[in-house]
Amino acid sequence: MTNKDLLNVVKNYGSPVYVYDADTITAQYNRLTNAFKSVKQLRLNYAVKALSNLSILQHLKGLGSGLDTVSIQEVQLGLKAGFTPDRIIFTPNGVSLGEIEEVAAMGVQINIDNLSILEQFGTKHPETPVCIRINPHVMAGGNTNISVGHIDSKFGISIHQLPHVLRIVENTGMNINGIHMHTGSDILDIDVFVYATEILFETAKQFSDLTFIDFGSGFKVPYKEGDIETNIEELGEKLGKRFNAFAKAYKKPLTLTFEPGKFLVSESGKFLVQVNVVKQTTSTVFAQVDSGFNHLIRPMLYGSQHEIHNISNPNGRERFYSVVGYICETDTFANNRRIAEISEGDILAFDNAGAYCFTMASNYNSRYRPAEVLIKGGKAHLIRKRETFDDLIANQVLIEE
């Protein structure tokens, strides 16, 4: 996407606006599949929570992807986008037995991550295939909020509780067809991840009828120039070889499964905002924009860094700015950042806005959520309308006096 393309999007659809590039998503999907080309049976289940727009799901379906879902609503989105139930896995945390049963009735693969629900579901539905999510107690992830494989995590069944799992499976006679783990997002050390996979392989030996092993995801993407990222090619070489050896020893066909979200869509996204005010104080120059953490909360929530470019004046002299939003509390996108000289009315573009950005947006301060646009086939397609006041009050009910 060129600056001209992005400025045309703002011209046609206003700001703030999220813009995604279909070609980038395709390239990332192909990069991951090529890295594991040595594996005979590979399946990528896109993590819907990263970016759940129906048009994005539809594009990924066309690439051959399945879906990883964490709520019944995400399952319904997947079905609406045209995925068949057998191409969807449901990996919730802390949901009711009723929700799991409702999803199972749709024919979706169930993934259970606690002993209580495992026993209840196995007792009532022993014939339904179930995957088990294991917590390997391996710390991975770039932030404590997104590291989910450590010993204090609420996710997964502790590897130390495997004897309890085996007892439940034996007592209920339930059908375990998959083993799963997810250590966290922003994996930096390939060897740490591979170490965790060995724990999963050892666990898989305890089950005789597996059809797949799911290694989660969490592959790191670069957020700035020179930033490190997960070496997918190295991982593909190391894990692919190890998986093939295990599958041969297991003596039954096994599918290697991943659930990438950020890796597929993060770099495809740009978030475009307009500068309302350039405000000089005694120590800081603020660029105040027509958005806030109601639209992009990651910098405030995780301390994540999104590169910011002035696409209205890309060749301007660089100055230092703090880019802040219009929310009525501390609302900072970037502190003291070098950006080409900014004037009021300029359009700023945030990089890496494809994952966990729009999906975490809200109506805080009663602001509308922005539009979404997909660049596909060289054309800009509106894939979500900007909200209106009618949308804001659609489900509110006034008490009759």
TrEMBL record:
Give the Pfam families listed for this entry: Orn_Arg_deC_N, Orn_DAP_Arg_deC
Annotated active site: C328
Where the record annotates domain Orn/DAP/Arg decarboxylase 2 C-terminal, the positions are 18-354
Q: Which UniProt keywords apply?
A: Amino-acid biosynthesis, Decarboxylase, Lyase, Lysine biosynthesis, Pyridoxal phosphate
Protein's UniProt keywords contain Lyase: yes
Orn/DAP/Arg decarboxylase 2 N-terminal domain: from which residue to which, for each copy? 24-266
Positions bearing N6-(pyridoxal phosphate)lysine: K49
GO biological process: one example? lysine biosynthetic process via diaminopimelate
The cofactor named in the record is: pyridoxal 5'-phosphate
Quick one: which pathway?
Amino-acid biosynthesis; L-lysine biosynthesis via DAP pathway; L-lysine from DL-2,6-diaminopimelate: step 1/1
> Which positions bind pyridoxal 5'-phosphate?
G218, Y356
| Known catalytic reactions | meso-2,6-diaminopimelate + H(+) = L-lysine + CO2
Molecular function in Gene Ontology: diaminopimelate decarboxylase activity; pyridoxal phosphate binding
Instruction: Identify the EC number(s).
Output: 4.1.1.20
Residues annotated as binding substrate are: R298, Y302, E329, Y356
InterPro entries assigned to the protein according to its UniProt record, in alphabetical order: Ala_racemase/Decarboxylase_C, DAP_deCOOHase_LysA, De-COase2_C, De-COase2_N, De-COase2_pyr-phos_BS, Orn/DAP/Arg_de-COase, PLP-binding_barrel
Task: Tell me which CDD domains the record gives.
Answer: PLPDE_III_DapDC
**Top-level division of the source organism's lineage:** Bacteria
What do we know about how this protein assembles, alone or with others? Homodimer.
The job of this chain, per UniProt, is described as: Specifically catalyzes the decarboxylation of meso-diaminopimelate (meso-DAP) to L-lysine.
Protein family according to the UniProt entry: Belongs to the Orn/Lys/Arg decarboxylase class-II family. LysA subfamily.
What's the protein called, per UniProt?
Diaminopimelate decarboxylase
Q: Which organism is it from?
A: Dokdonia donghaensis DSW-1
The encoding gene is: lysA
